[in-house]
Design goal:
166 residues, alpha+beta, Jelly Rolls, 4-stranded antiparallel sheet, 6 helices, 8 strands, globular
Length: 166
């Protein structure tokens, strides 16, 4: 189980009191992944989110759809997340039934903590204030991700436009 001092530094849990973190702590289940292992696969369904406690992961996306290409040749690394900033990912797993939007691959041996949808819903039902804080933090994170994705889409469209014009 992660220490309370660690949980206090997780951006997704910013604003939770020590007692709220104490109640959340036992719900976080440790899981280890070896280097090269897929933690999340794009277009699959999952019912948990992750907190990266040790190691680093790549966030990748297959950028070519509808062709029988080798995914390794069409997959692009969008980001590298390392435990030093205690990132979370896979929040869609606790929010609803949407498919995963990217791959998460262990760049090196990694320790993560998972929070299941069922455990999050029980936690939220027992403490509406904590649920509100976490949901607000998730909304902020998703908004930042959407803004970055939008900027990258404009860059890609511009590059495609230039390539077609030549």
């Amino acid at each position: 189980m992660p220490e309370i001092s660690t949980l206090q530094n997780v951006p997704l849990f910013a604003g939770l009191s020590t007692s709220q973190l104490e109640k959340l702590k036992p719900l976080l289940k440790p899981v280890k992944y070896k280097q090269g292992s897929y933690i999340i696969k794009e277009n699959t369904f999952g019912d948990q989110m992750y907190l990266l406690a040790e190691g680093c992961v790549h966030v990748t996306k297959d950028l070519v759809k509808g062709f029988d290409e080798d995914h390794a040749s069409t997959e692009k690394v969008l980001a590298t997340l390392c435990a030093n900033v205690l990132p979370t990912f896979g929040e869609n797993g606790v929010l609803g039934h949407a498919s995963r939007t990217a791959n998460i691959i262990a760049q090196k041996d990694s320790l993560l903590y998972t929070l299941s949808k069922a455990d999050f819903e029980n936690y939220a039902a027992a403490d509406y204030q904590a649920a509100y804080i976490i949901m607000t933090n998730i909304a902020k994170k998703l908004s930042e991700n959407l803004f970055a994705t939008d900027a990258n889409l404009v860059k890609m469209a511009t590059a495609l436009y230039i390539a077609v014009q030549q």
